[in-house]
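Section 5: illustrative case.
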């Protein structure tokens, strides 16, 4: 049976240098539950190293934690990639690490990058700067995500900085993107009105949370059979009654 549920599919952890250190796996899982989110995605910059810990922190809970990553393309556009399994995300992470531009994290300038376990203990602090660009151009990036069974979503297209619309001026029609995301600056009705040329794409609000306060701030309502990657994929393809719930409908 289908029902409506609330999800936030773009959340950073303390691994992203720009996120606060409060964004630990256990706290994120707890806050997501307290805000009645049934599905979240962990999407750190160019890394999935805090996904497993967040999934373990939410184990036995009502929150489904999707494995994801916010990948910076060669055009310096952010793409939220969501994967059916942790292994698929880790396979993509290996490619992203191989194609990430070299650079060391300057903690004073960018912030700490912390890999934590499900008890919020520090496991590692990667030296390389994660928030830089890769050499993956948009078409190749999306193809590599799809080759791993994943979904590729153009992040925060209503923002100038690090969005495809901001960098290129448009969404490349042949890139094969699965959906477009709008930031908390724009509600879904306004997003649809602002981008009529992209009416064929599903449009997803997301918080892009970098702090605990922001988790679930700009959620997406989905009609699904259950909170899962497979159901989300069906929703983005509008299959068998699944879909993104339009404002004021349903
Ligand atoms: Zn971004
Ligand atoms: Zn982000």
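Designed sequence:
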């Amino acid at each position: 049976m289908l029902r409506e549920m609330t999800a936030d599919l773009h959340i950073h952890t303390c691994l992203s240098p720009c996120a606060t250190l409060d964004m630990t796996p256990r706290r994120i899982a707890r806050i997501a539950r307290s805000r009645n989110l049934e599905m979240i995605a962990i999407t750190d910059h160019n890394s999935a190293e805090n996904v497993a810990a967040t999934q373990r922190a939410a184990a036995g809970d009502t929150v489904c934690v999707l494995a994801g990553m916010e990948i910076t393309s060669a055009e310096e556009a952010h793409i939220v990639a969501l994967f059916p399994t942790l292994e698929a995300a880790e396979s993509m992470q290996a490619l992203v690490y191989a194609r990430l531009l070299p650079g060391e994290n300057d903690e004073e300038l960018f912030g700490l990058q912390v890999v934590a376990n499900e008890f919020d203990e520090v496991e590692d602090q990667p030296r390389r700067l994660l928030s830089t660009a890769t050499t993956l151009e948009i078409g190749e990036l999306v193809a590599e995500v799809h080759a791993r069974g994943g979904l590729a979503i153009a992040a925060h297209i209503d923002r100038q900085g690090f969005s495809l619309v901001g960098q290129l001026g448009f969404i490349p029609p042949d890139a094969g993107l699965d959906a477009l995301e709008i930031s908390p600056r724009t509600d879904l009705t306004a997003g649809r009105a602002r981008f009529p040329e992209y009416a064929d794409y599903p449009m997803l609000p997301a918080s892009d949370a970098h702090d605990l306060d922001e988790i679930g701030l700009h959620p997406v309502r989905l009609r699904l059979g259950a909170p899962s990657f497979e159901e989300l994929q069906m929703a983005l393809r509008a299959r068998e009654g699944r879909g993104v719930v339009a404002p004021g409908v349903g």
